[in-house]
Amino acid sequence: MAISINRPIGNLMFNIFYLKWKYKLEKGNETRKRIVSGVQPTGSVHLGNYLGAIKNWVSLQNTYDTLFFIVDLHAITLPYDAQKLSKATRDTAAIYLACGVDTSKASVFLQSHVRAHVELMWLLSCVTPVGWLNRMIQFKEKSRKAGDENVGVALLTYPVLMASDILLYQSDFVPVGEDQKQHLELTRELAERVNNFYGGRKWKKLGGRGGAIFKVPEPLIPPAGARVMSLTDGLSKMSKSAPSDQSRINLLDPKDVIANKIKRCKTDSFPGLEFDNPERPECNNLLSIYQLISGRTKEEVSQECQDMNWGSFKSLLTDALVDHLHPIQVRYEEIISDSAYLDRILADGAVKAADIADATLNNVYQAMGFLRK
After folding, report:
1. Residue 9 pLDDT greater than 50, yes or no
2. Strands, DSSP E only, in 30-73?
3. How do the domains of the chain map onto residue ranges?
4. Annotated active-site positions, please?
5. Which of 103, 108, 164, 290 lies 20 to 30 Å from 56, alpha-carbon distance?
6. DSSP bridge pairs for 66
7. What order of strands is seen across the sheet that includes strand 65-70?
8. Which residues, including other chains, have CB under 8 Å from residue 213's CB and lie 6 or more apart?
9. How far apart are CA 227 and CA 52, in angstroms?
10. pLDDT one-digit tens code per residue, 214-230
């Protein structure tokens, strides 16, 4: 009799402990800090995109609630080829997955598949002073390069769409490179402006919950790799828009192309190799790339490479790049050849993202005084 009585009690105690553990686990997932980030599908995804963003996402997805999207709406702010955009968008999504972004941990989707991005952008535009946009350094640089006849309104309002991308998901942190810090600061200012204009008691009087409408996000800048430089100019960022393909390593470059680019990349005539010498920007950049690709510490790389000549180091760097990128390239080919799989991933990601985005957007509409249907 003792056995038959204790067994259900034991089962009951186990169930209670299990439910408590499950509740804590689910509660922990709910309170995870949220991160959003994305890459434009303009041109090929290159080593700078990978080391500065995507590689870090793979680590971040384990400890944060993450949403990684392809920012295709941003890609049309300057003249573009529609057919190339379509292909580049699919390629970029496939590269996310090939690099290790795990859809069981992160939502992967297209910006244009969640219409709330554009709606919120309009609402934010209505409270954004033009002077705030005119001071954006990237607008000045890109408009100067493009010429007045090729500059549309979207290039000026680009930072407002970026703010929409971030605020829509109540993001806690945003991984940004040095060149995007000014745009994130605008996002923070817009969040505070909307909260002050429409939040708190004003929102509560309209039937809302009151308080802040948006979280004010913080920048998350990786300690290394946030700014990978050009192979032809150690003072310029590695970029898709640079006219010479020689200036960058594309993630899908074959072995011989990588070898040729490293062989021809700009170096200097100083003896030995060293980090952090302001007179040797190319040396610092190439050593940093090797450090990030090899997974070694800065001290280990310094010790290994300090007495090398450029020929030996370039051979070492080429081998490290080829070995690191090969499995990514193999996985990419598998994913891009399965259109149904890729489409399903993007559709599922958009549904998850839209659930969060729509809740935020409805709150904004309500706080700004709109009647909802």
Report:
1. no
2. 34-39, 65-70
3. 32-227+338-367, 245-336
4. 142, 237, 240
5. 164
6. 35, 106
7. 106-110, 65-70, 34-39, 173-175, 218-220
8. 194, 195, 198, 199, 203, 363, 364, 367
9. 6
10. 999 999 987 665 679 99
The single-letter DSSP state of residue 68 is E
Task: Report the C-alpha gap between 195 and 337 in whole angstroms.
Answer: 46
Higher pLDDT, 136 or 249: 249
DSSP, residue by residue, 188-207: HHHHHHHHHHHSTHHHHHTT
Task: Note the CATH architecture for domain 32-227+338-367.
Answer: 3-Layer(aba) Sandwich (3.40)
32-227+338-367 and 245-336 have identical folds: no
Beta bridge pairs of residue 229: 237
Rounded-to-integer distance, Cα 351 and Cα 347, Å: 6
pLDDT tens digit sequence for 333-353 = 999 999 999 999 999 999 999
**Residue 367 per-residue DSSP state:** H
Q: Of 336, 251, 333, 259, whose CA–CA distance to 45 is shortest?
A: 251
Contact 148, 18 (CB under 8 A): no
Q: Look up the CATH architecture of domain 245-336.
A: Orthogonal Bundle (1.10)
Closest CA to 264 of 254, 273, 256: 256
